[in-house]
Amino acid sequence: MRLRRGTPADAVALAQVHVTARRAAPMPDGVHPEHEVRGWLAARLRADEVWVAHEGTQVLGYARLTDGWLDDLYVRPAAQGRGVGTALLAQAFRARPGGFCLWVFAANAPARAFYAAAGLVELERTDGADNEEREPDVRMAWPGEQPEAFWARLHAELAADVRAVGDDLRARARALAVASDTPFEASLQVTGEPRAEG
User: What number is the average pLDDT over the span 116-127?
Assistant: First the structure.
């Protein structure tokens, strides 16, 4: 088995790996038919860093990386258990020494165990409201060769998100106060009824 960079010519083979690997895994069905996956991967092969595992002309699996993320890692079902996924993940470590995050479906226990065994840690769980399948997922991270810098970057990103939420809430409070001609009070109950004064 060897690894090489992917090219747009790989779109058909990678789409087949993508679709068959998803069908074989304990994860939700994909929401896109294979021809749409082909078109999407053709575009991603032009824009992203993609590594292909192959034996001769047969594609065994692939990994797709973007800035700070391992977006895809799929292995053809018949090639699983032969170290293909491990080789692709090792390539991701080499390609992103500063660390990366990934999303994995909560239902995909084998994938979560695979990543955990390789040193990735769980960061958060969601109800899936933000993914196309609307299925619970787990964000995992590999902190890279300089974990302190990786965690500091994630802390800074979260701080920026918190500031953005705070700015949004303050703007909404101002707009509500203007529209209702009533100062906004955070002490209002969930029902919207003013809290009874003692």
Answer: 96
- How are strands ordered across the β-sheet holding 100-105? 2-5, 49-55, 58-66, 69-75, 100-105, 137-142, 121-126
Give the three-class secondary structure for 149. helix
Give tens-digit pLDDT for 71-95.
999 999 999 999 999 999 999 999 9
Distances (CA, A) of 146 to 99, 100, 139, 151, 175: 8, 12, 20, 9, 44
Q: Report yes or no: 76 and 59 within 8 Å, Cβ to Cβ.
A: yes
Q: Is 166 helix (H, G, I), strand (E, B) or coil?
A: helix
Which residues partner with 3 through β-bridges?
Answer: 53
How many Å apart are CA 9 and CA 5, to the nearest integer? 11
Compute the mean pLDDT over every residue in the chain, rounded to the nearest whole number: 90
